[in-house]
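Chain A, query sequence.
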Amino acid sequence: MTDNPSSYAETSPLAAAALAFGDLVADTDSRRAAIPVHHFETTQAAREAADRDEIADGDVIVIDAEQVVGFLVIAFPTALTEERGTFPHLTKPGRDYMSGEYMDSVVVAEREARARGFLLRDEDAQDRIRSMRHLATASAERVRTDPDPENPEWKTALDRLTTALTYLREHDPVTAGAIEAGDAEAAEIVKRITGTARP
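Chain A, predicted structure.
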């Protein structure tokens, strides 16, 4: 066997397919990494920027204060999140819109929304629960690591953890049960420490 993947691919159809797939994934990742993500204070400010041609077709738009994430379709901002501000929602699920022409923008926008704990309009209940569990885990890790209430990154992680756990407490019986068990255990510890209960 040779150490050169290209020469091995010439002798094995499976290796050739794997190499081609790797190239496809790398190409897709680099296309998505090149999509600009614009942040605005309001959806109205994003609309005005679009009117001034400061945002290009397919660029992703994030408005944290309104919990809106979307992208520009030709010259019109659209929302992928449940919250939409002054943006309209697409007439079809984002991944299906215009036969998938905006797939890369949709994937980047979904990633931005999930990282913030914003609900996506086209996500089903189980996908939302998985997204929120992932957000809770990642945020909890940041909150536990080097806690610093003065650090804006730490505060953001705490806000995202709170958002995720609030959603999961209402919509995910497994997480809700774990939170309740943790709350009960913490209450018992406090009672023991304060002397209001005996072990």
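The helical segments are 5-11, 13-33, 43-51, 103-116, 125-144, 152-171, 173-194. The two ends are 67 Å apart (CA to CA).
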